[in-house]
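User: Structure tokens for this complex, please. No commentary.
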Amino acid sequence: MSTDLMPNRYTPGEADVPLRESELIARRDSVLGASYRLQYRRPVHFVRGEGMWLYDPDGRAYLDFYNNVPSLGHCHPEVNAAMAEQAGRISANTRYLEPKLVDYAERLIATFPAELNRVVFTCTGSESNDLALRIAKLASGNEGVIVSSYAYHGTSAATASVSPNLGDAVKLSPLVRMVDLPGPAGVPESQAADFFEAQVRAAVVDLNRRGIGVAALLIDSIFSSDGVWVDPPGFIASGIAAVREAGGLLIADEVQPGFGRTGAHMWGFERHSIVPDLVTLGKPMGNGFPIGAVIGRKSPMDQFGATARYSNTFAGNTVGIATADAVLNILQRDKIPQHALAMGERLRTGLEKLATQPYGICGIRNAGLFFGIDLGLEGATAPSRRAMALNVVNAMRDDGVLVSTTGANEDALKVRPPLVCQAEHVDRFLEALEHALGGLAR
Amino acid sequence: MSTDLMPNRYTPGEADVPLRESELIARRDSVLGASYRLQYRRPVHFVRGEGMWLYDPDGRAYLDFYNNVPSLGHCHPEVNAAMAEQAGRISANTRYLEPKLVDYAERLIATFPAELNRVVFTCTGSESNDLALRIAKLASGNEGVIVSSYAYHGTSAATASVSPNLGDAVKLSPLVRMVDLPGPAGVPESQAADFFEAQVRAAVVDLNRRGIGVAALLIDSIFSSDGVWVDPPGFIASGIAAVREAGGLLIADEVQPGFGRTGAHMWGFERHSIVPDLVTLGKPMGNGFPIGAVIGRKSPMDQFGATARYSNTFAGNTVGIATADAVLNILQRDKIPQHALAMGERLRTGLEKLATQPYGICGIRNAGLFFGIDLGLEGATAPSRRAMALNVVNAMRDDGVLVSTTGANEDALKVRPPLVCQAEHVDRFLEALEHALGGLAR
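Assistant:
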């Protein structure tokens, strides 16, 4: 496998790019440098967003079925109004008393099981996971972390070092252990829990044998970077119990599944009927405003807070809080998680119909509006499946629909539209997918 | 010394707090928990901000001489308009082409010496320092970090572990070495450079002896957490050379001194006539919007970028960029750094006059509008000096002027008003300080 695990990207010279864009790319490369990759073989260039749609400078509309940050749609007027109104009033930090901070903290915590009754705000999902790991290490007295074999948990030094998804160039911590998931390993659902538990127990034994101990099992409940593995519900429970037996905590990374994306529930871990010790939030929390949080049980949160001062300048400032409050209000008022469930079902039904055609759809996995769609014609090699996924993604981009790839072999489509998508958008996506698959099949 | 290094804070039961506030504090404690400290013995409660002023629910105005995030003043209408306008248009991420990102990156880099020509955006100063350390480690092939003995560089696991300022409860990394500063050690300015260099060389020798090597000297050019030590300009240069000889990089943490605070220059390191390898930005960059950056030389930045994918979801999104662009535009258009220099001189003159009175002002250090003011009557013990600073800060708070403390003994006033303060604000601050000192002296 390549050390660069972002296959769906622009590579200079490999595709025709219009002059306007190639000039902008040259300027961009000369100031932003090599860290900044552009998605798609022919990069997209957007100047306006509205709801499910992004528009290029020529006014061409692209249907966004990929961005999970603006869950309520691009440029949501009500969210933006809340942000602007608060910015004109005050942006207080958390060392001053401000009722909005407390009001929102109470409302957010009320969406969690009763055991999870403390919140600390951050600015990003990476900061949330970084902080949760610090809390888990202090609470457990241990140092080891267990993640899934293709996990991604953030960009900070600590979170990147437990993110095998970042590839060979980012060194893994000597204190992290990876566990295989039953789905990608081809284990039948009836044996999924036992398989997962056995993997976790082996990691615990190894960490203990080396005197490292286990501080946390850090997982997202839909294993998004591993290719979206959601079933059977509950398959992670016995593995979690094994970690707790060993003194470790469960950190549920809800940066991607959280805030209703998995449908019906507000939080992805609820599908598995488990209650984490710590929960980390990010991406859609402010519909684009940089805000995240760690929610947790009283004991580890207070143990950390009482000793280790945690002060995050921007986190919990009133503008971020007012924005996040508007998002949560809309999610609840408009029953967005339930809507995500219904739209996810429509999308799944459409995909299952496409899968009856000889297009190469060989797996459909979803929870709500987070889908992994395996592609590959019968008998295809891993590289050819990977190439096929990349071709589909780029054909859809040319057709005006945005998705990307996921999974260890990057041969699954990663589909996660804003949660406000309607039947017409689902149908447009299915049409574009059929068109792309049909074009390849020809 | 206490393990809790935030002396200026509310402690339940130690001060009379009105019912409205004590009820809010009780609710706050029950959801936010022990991490969240409140400043001042009697916490402040603000509901509106405008320019230099914060207002409590009763409409009482407090002059803000402490907050270095809203450098252009609270609720700046032009900055907020730029944010709101962009939020209504598009909030694109950096994997899509968007000209504003490139325009701002070019404008930001143009404010730096020519050698510093690459930028990566983050969301917070902590993320900036965390990323800069990753880059320095990759570029140098070494692991060791040298910081000042009371430094603070962030809240992430990696940055907290090189922040002795956080106190005993946050473990330092075995790979960090602290160096004493000449000022707090009582070394005369004529020997400051030699003293600093000797400290750094000793740290390098120790890191090399253990096979760790030196990846970076990480310092902020005004040593704000150490008590604001700014003179003589250039005293850090030979220590920096020693680090480079050993293969390490200089990371200039400009989160606090940056964006004109030190007066005349845009960047604090310019006072020392040195050019860093990496520069980290945060706090005032968006006047409150969560945005930061790492600026660097081509070689380490491209070495990192070419291999280690760095993707920060919110960082560099168009709303943050538009906000930061408005801030930079105003800083340059209104010559704010020059204004900060002039106001800093007025404040210094006033303080020097107060220092001729028997009030206990025994040291005044500043660069532009960042001041450390040592307090202590002749022959006073360290605890009594610390108590005096705390008393002054709280008396000023009661008088409607906000400042706090800094330094290893927390016996210096930390004064850093928004850069837009005018002569009348400086005079009001001096009046309140004289009043507080006079009241204590009675």
